[in-house]
Amino acid sequence: MTTQQDLVIDAFDARVERRHNRRALFTAALGAAAVGSAFAYSDPALAQSAVTDADVLNFALNLEYLEAQFYLYAVNGTGLAASQTASGGGAAGGTVTGGARVDFSGDPIVGAYAREIAADEAAHVAFLRTNLGSAAVAMPNINISGASDGPFTAAARAAGVVGPTGTFNPYASPNDFLLGAFIFEDVGVTAYKGAAPLLSNKTFLEAAAGILAVEAYHAAIVRTTLYAKGVQALVDATELISNARDTLDGSPAEDRIRGIGPEADQGIAPSGSGNTLTSNIAPLNVNGLAYSRTTGQVLNIVYLNAGTTTMGGFFPNGVNGNIRSTT
Q1: Partners of 51 in the beta sheet?
Q2: What is the residue-averaged pLDDT of the chain?
Q3: pLDDT bracket for residue 30 (50, 70, 90)
């Protein structure tokens, strides 16, 4: 007689088998992509190029290296292990400039959020590296310094968050850390959404959608926490950063179906007042859709340069892989 316990065991066995098959499919499909299953896409930054699924995943890996290093340094004072920054072929990863442990003792809730996000970003790096295998690019040189000559200060000065001689150090306090995280998280969400149509393999697309969902959760944590603090200066800072990102990524023609717009970025300032007060935790268009950015727009922001370039800002020597230019 088949018991309930037998049914449960059979169900778990089937689940393990499905997971094994999916992993095998992911690995096999990636191997095909890495050897040249190229396709074209209407991303302006790639209009005259052919890219593979491996190229797109490596582009994402560069961004995950950046986020993982920022969060790991903020919670631990150290970053990824060298084994997690080398290329799939064994070439050494780049260097990390800056990074420091944040004192979360005055705000343990933000500290708990930071530790969760750090673990998630490290898991994203490991996942992409494992499934890219020998095709995985090494971590490029990354600058996450909070010094006066670092990219966080450059971004904050350009946005008007600090004055022309001021310094923005995201490791100085939990609030500063949240603003530093705000710079990255919304960009990550729009990057994954914009990259989704670039992927030809549905297994890769599902995996990318899974990471996109996590990045959206992270962005919501950061935006909600900043909003809940009720500090007008923090709200104002998000609007300034948002405006600066819109300046960097240009003015694409509006497409409300695809979630593209010339002023797609939004801070957390609420609208209305009293009984009509409405927060702006989820930055959406009029159709309730999240926004997308092309790979070029994403690079404009992380390079802190609205022009044509292949390096700068948080990636002083550029990202690694075949997608590395803003145009």
Answers
A1: 39
A2: 89
A3: low
* Secondary structure string (H, E, C) spanning the chain: CCCHHHHHHHHHHHHHHHHHHHHHHHHHHHHHHHCCCCECCCCHHHCCCCECHHHHHHHHHHHHHHHHHHHHHHHHCCCCCHHHCCCCCCCCCCCEEECCCCCCCCCHHHHHHHHHHHHHHHHHHHHHHHHHHHHCCCCCCEEECCCCCCHHHHHHHHHCCCCCCCCCCCCCCHHHHHHHHHHHHHHHHHHHHHHHHHCCCHHHHHHHHHHHHHHHHHHHHHHHHHHHCCCHHHHHHHHHHHHHHHHHCCCCCCECCCCECCCCCCCCCCECCHHHCECCCCCECCCCCECCCCHHHHHHHHCCCCCCCCCECCECCCCCCCCCCCC
Is the separation of the CB atoms in 38 and 315 below 8 Å? no
**pTM of structure:** 0.86
pLDDT in tens, 234-289: 999 999 999 999 999 998 889 998 888 888 899 999 999 999 999 999 999 999 99
pLDDT band at 3 (very low <50, low <70, confident <90, very high): very low
Q: Using CB atoms within 10 Å of the CB of residue 1, give its burial: 0 to 12 exposed, 13 to 18 middle, 19+ buried.
A: exposed
Backbone angles phi, psi at 242, to 5 degrees: -60, -45
* For the chain, domain boundaries: 4-302
